[in-house]
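PROTEIN–LIGAND DATA SHEET

This sheet pairs a single protein chain with one bound small molecule, zinc ion, given as SMILES. Inputs appear in the order they were entered. The predicted three-dimensional arrangement of chain and ligand is reported afterwards as a token string under its own label.
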Amino acid sequence: MTLSDTSGDAPRPDSPLAAEFLASPNHTERRGVAEPDCVILHYTGMPTGAEALAWLRNPSSEVSAHYVVWEDGRIVQLVGEARRAWHAGLSVWKGERDLNSRSIGIEIVNPGHEGGAPPFPNQQIAAVIALCRDICDRHAIKPERVLAHSDVAPARKIDPGERFPWDRLWREGVGHWIKPSPIEGGPILQSGAEGPPVRALQAMLTLYGYGVEITGVYDKATELCVAAFQRHFRPSKVDGEADVSTVETLRRLIEAVRK
Ligand SMILES: [Zn+2]
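PREDICTION REPORTED AS:
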């Protein structure tokens, strides 16, 4: 179906890159935020894109996203950008808790970890990059606010996963990323550790944006937060343990964003 055969009252896509608007009923007004200031990337995590699309448009699912990007790079819009789509769920970034109210959500068709984590096709990633550029340009969204679902909900979510090519996005002008520091030696902090070094690590994660409590205890939440950080920024080893490479990469990332 093309835009021309949809019914007369079908909204037009906000992005010129979207082929059509297939409306989802799952949205409300943005709360307290006039315009989105971040982009959250997801994988659909279902066997097929068709199933995911049907789910995202089903009123009983109570989930949606602004855009879906298919394996072949086709982009479909489900919710107008002015509206609050329901994709992030319970989430925190930079101390803010209602990420749905301040974000654009993009679902990338991929069966995810449960479906064997197949790689994202080249043309799909090219479309994600073009769409993110378009959205970030139109809403003046900063590169460091293009995030993974796992970044904003590390205890619940692992999408779009460590196979998602954040390095390529960065090279092509989308998101914030640096080459990870080399992996050498074992963990310096891991589950069960306590004390000022753990507080320092939690403070660094919080400074970058993650929603982890500064408790001084390397608890499950800290481990999952470190794993989320690794999934995005040091994807070759995602184990939730803070080794030198993890801590160094985080430190350099914080420095880079201040420049
Ligand atoms: Zn997600």
